[in-house]
Amino acid sequence: MYISWYAKIRDIFFQMAKNMENLLPQNILQLSIAERIQLVQDIWDSITIESNDLTISDTQKQELERRLELYYQNTHQVSTWEEVKKRFNR
């Protein structure tokens, strides 16, 4: 299955490279949901590899620090992932 998925993705990207006007919608939507999820994961992985080049603004840093401080002040109010899923599956 991986070979099949890889071949499809490779073919789609080669086609996209040849004709930039026909980018994502037509080609990506031809993939199965599982293949699209895998594509998104692969794209995300490639971003995380290069994420050292990313910087955040002082405003973003301040917001992250504010949220982290709120978390530390209210750790008794947090939910586990299992608890969150149960609330949404009711």
TrEMBL record:
It comes from the Bacteria. It holds the Pfam family Unstab_antitox. It comes from Sphaerospermopsis reniformis. This is Addiction module component.
